Amino acid sequence: MVKGGPDFTIELKAMRKGAKRVCGIDEAGRGPWAGPVVAAAVVLDPNNIPHGLNDSKKLTETRREALFEPIMASAKVGIGIAEVDRIDRDNILQATLWAMAQAVGQIDGVALALVDGNRAPQLPCPVQTIIAGDATSLSIAAASIIAKVTRDRIMLGHDATYPQYGFARHKGYGTALHQDALRRLGPTPLHRRSFAPIAALLAAR
Predict the structure, then answer these.
(1) Residue 28 CB partners (closer than 8 Å, separation 6+)
(2) 63-81 b/e with 16+ CB inside 10 Å = b?
(3) Residue 189: is it exposed, middle or buried by C-beta count within 10 angstroms (0-12/13-18/19+)?
(4) How far is residue 182's CA from residue 148's CA, in Å, rounded to a whole number?
């Protein structure tokens, strides 16, 4: 636990009321112009919580990578990945909620799901949405790390296929480097054609 960071209070209260498995859910990749959106669900072991968990946005890439394996080794983890075709077909929100449900479905016996944000996926268990949940709940913070590291690794893999786009650096976000590559080279199959910048580029070509 990080001083001033997320804690295990919400989970412990639910567990005292009989919820044996409380999972935190978060996503990574709603904003980028390319690549999948990834959701993670994590049920932490109260007796074996990795030290240093925090909102993934507050951690360096090195620290997130260092925490990934301890979380995977000590917790029950599910990962859902919504690819670009689903994002373009269903919209980014629905694709995100689908990925969250897929992640939770990989963990047996979840009694309560704590979801970062204010939109809840359809799950076979009670759901509690929490604004800034990754800064409040250790379970959501752990999920944010798993989702972020998983997605970053996916985008690093895509960088090898499309090295001229710089995916290893910007992970698909609309940086100046990414915009310049798009202007010069056009979109790849990884680009979200339903997103306004990509749709505008396609319309102008």
Answers:
(1) 37, 38, 39, 56, 144, 147, 148, 150, 151, 152
(2) ebeebbebbbebbbbbbbb
(3) exposed
(4) 24
Helices (H), 82-175: 84-90, 92-104, 138-161, 167-170
Which strands, in side-by-side order, build the sheet including 22-28?
76-82, 37-43, 22-28, 112-116, 127-130
What one-letter code names the amino acid at 89?
R
Phi-psi region of 21 (alpha: psi -120 to 50; beta: other; left: phi over 0): beta
What residues pair up with 38 in beta bridges, in sequence order? 28, 81
Tokens of 141: 């913070």
Residue 201 is which amino acid? L
How many helices and strands in the chain, by DSSP H and E? 8, 5
Instruction: Give the tens place of pLDDT for each residue, 137-194.
Output: 999 999 999 999 999 999 999 999 999 999 999 999 999 999 999 999 999 999 999 9
- Report residue 11: phi and psi, to 5°: -65, -45
Cα–Cα nearest to 54, from 134, 123, 127, 128: 134
